[in-house]
Structure to design on (564 residues):
């Protein structure tokens, strides 16, 4: 019998069941992880939510408009809502974590959009990208964190990173100066006007002027500022002078300043206060420290004289008029027009040598030498007048008078355009006194009489008679013409006969000259006959004398008495 061995059992590997994640869950798991990471990343970069109030939400869109600083996105507009009082809109902005340190109470916000402001066109880049909210923190200012802001309607004029100094300028009138008006130093634009204080408007206007570095180092304590707006037109001996800082200053207004080249003053500190003068000339005048207050009462009208008019000495400006008014003078019982004016004594070179004298003594000495005040019209075109101080040695004597600290300078009338105007006025007054009505009536009466004479019956009769006489003359001339025509035809024949007659007369005169001329026999006989006739005449005269004395001699004959 065969024994068959049973096969040995095979080893078996133990099987452990593990739980597997289906592949279908991998994608959602990865999506969830990415979403969680994005959510964490977004939350980690998210800053505080702020609210900005604007007048309108023009150009802003919720979920699209952004908050930017230096063109870096600092947040996105989340929502736009109208305030409960309907006076403004409230824009909610979700900012980034980078913006959180900038959200202080000194930060300003505005809507960046295309607009013309302060002479510049801003926001042109928003034509394609759309409007956004701009922000400008104060880099040097420390403030408190804030989440509710009031936005500005206009963009800031000055960039936050601009280096320079702000100065305060005080004036009575703002004039044409506006936000963004340029500031000039020796015709170079070195800054701009940032604005003005509203608190002090009851007294004056305080303007904030920014001067960029390094030009701010030229502003010293003795620097003078003046209003450079518009054009300065002057009429002088050399003609019309026009001065303009720049075309931008003409359109937007402007401020200019200057510092003496030999200035010894220290540089001005930030927010140093200066006076803003109305013009360059006013600023230049302010540089003369020693000033005298003078007063004059001018005879006649002061029309054309205004505050700010020049005061001249030898034709050069030494001061300006400060006030012109009307005052009742009880001593004279009439209304007078006092003219107050200020003279800068330092304008006269060498005046420092006599500053040791008391001002009253100096003024009294000048008046004794003939110092007088007159009104002059420098131009016939403008009609304005100035005060002219003149030295007149032959002026009537006068004394110096004082009204407190004001010196009263005697005033007189002088020549110039003003005297020409007065002479013209007197001439017109004389012309007005002429009786033009009477002259007109006389001329009208003479014209009427002349018209009556010309159109009267006598002239008509005379003209008719003259016309008849002219007709008669014409008839006579016609008859003469008719009767004289045959005679005119015989003129050649008559001329020939006259020529022949003249030849015969010439021959007759030649014959007479030959028979009775100087060398003719007749003339010789006549010369011998004339003496004989003379002797005969004497004999006859002697006979006549004898007969007149002795008529008896005609009968008795001549007696020989020995005496005739």
């Amino acid at each position: 019998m065969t024994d068959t061995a049973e096969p040995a059992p095979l080893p078996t590997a133990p099987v452990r069941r593990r739980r597997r994640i289906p592949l279908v869950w991998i994608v959602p798991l990865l999506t969830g992880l990415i979403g969680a990471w994005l959510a964490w990343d977004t939350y980690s970069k998210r800053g505080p939510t702020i609210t900005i109030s604007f007048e309108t939400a023009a150009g802003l869109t919720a979920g699209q408009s952004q908050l930017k600083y230096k063109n870096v996105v600092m947040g996105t507009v989340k929502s736009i809502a109208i305030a409960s009082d309907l006076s403004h809109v409230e824009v909610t902005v979700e900012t980034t974590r980078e913006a959180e340190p900038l959200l202080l109470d000194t930060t300003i916000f505005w809507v960046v959009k295309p607009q013309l402001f302060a002479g510049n066109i801003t926001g042109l880049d928003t034509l394609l990208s759309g409007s956004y909210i701009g922000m400008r923190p104060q880099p040097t200012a420390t403030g408190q964190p804030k989440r509710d802001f009031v936005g500005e309607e206009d963009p800031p004029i000055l960039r936050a990173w601009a280096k320079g100094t702000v100065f305060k300028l005080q004036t009575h009138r703002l004039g044409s100066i506006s936000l963004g008006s340029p500031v000039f130093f020796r015709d170079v634009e070195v800054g701009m006007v940032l604005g003005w204080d509203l608190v002090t408007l009851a007294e004056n206007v305080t303007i904030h002027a920014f001067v960029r570095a390094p030009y701010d180092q030229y502003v010293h304590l003795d620097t003078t500022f003046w209003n450079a707006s518009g054009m300065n037109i002057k009429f002088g001996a050399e003609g019309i002078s026009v001065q303009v800082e720049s075309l931008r200053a003409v359109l937007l207004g402007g401020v200019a300043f200057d510092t003496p080249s030999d200035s010894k003053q220290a540089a001005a500190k930030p927010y140093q206060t200066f006076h803003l003068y109305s013009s360059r000339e006013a600023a230049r005048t302010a540089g003369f420290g020693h000033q005298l207050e003078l007063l004059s009462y001018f005879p006649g009208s002061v029309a054309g004289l205004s505050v700010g008019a020049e005061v001249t000495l030898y034709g050069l400006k030494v001061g300006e008029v400060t006030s012109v008014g009307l005052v009742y003078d009880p001593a004279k019982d009439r209304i007078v027009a006092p003219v107050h004016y200020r003279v800068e004594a330092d304008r006269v070179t060498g005046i420092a040598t006599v500053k040791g004298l008391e001002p009253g003594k100096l003024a009294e000495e000048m008046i004794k030498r003939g110092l007088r005040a007159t009104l002059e019209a420098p131009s016939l075109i403008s009609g304005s007048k100035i005060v002219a101080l003149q030295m007149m040695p032959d002026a009537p004597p006068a004394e110096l008078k004082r009204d407190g600290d004001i010196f009263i300078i005697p005033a007189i009338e002088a020549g110039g355009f003003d005297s020409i105007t007065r002479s013209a006025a007197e001439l017109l007054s004389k012309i007005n006194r002429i009786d033009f009505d009477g002259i007109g009536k006389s001329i009208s009466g003479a014209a009427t009489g002349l018209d009556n004479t010309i159109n009267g019956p006598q002239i008509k009769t005379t003209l008719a008679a003259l016309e008849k006489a002219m007709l008669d003359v014409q008839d006579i001339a016609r008859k003469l013409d008719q009767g004289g025509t045959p005679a005119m035809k015989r003129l050649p024949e008559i001329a020939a006969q006259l020529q022949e007659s003249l030849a015969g007369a010439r021959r007759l005169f030649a014959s007479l000259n030959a028979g009775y001329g100087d060398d003719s026999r007749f003339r010789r006989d006549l010369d011998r006959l004339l003496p004989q006739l003379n002797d005969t005449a004497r004999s006859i005269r002697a006979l006549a004398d004898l007969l007149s004395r002795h008529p008896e001699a005609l009968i008795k004959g001549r007696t020989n008495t020995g005496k005739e």
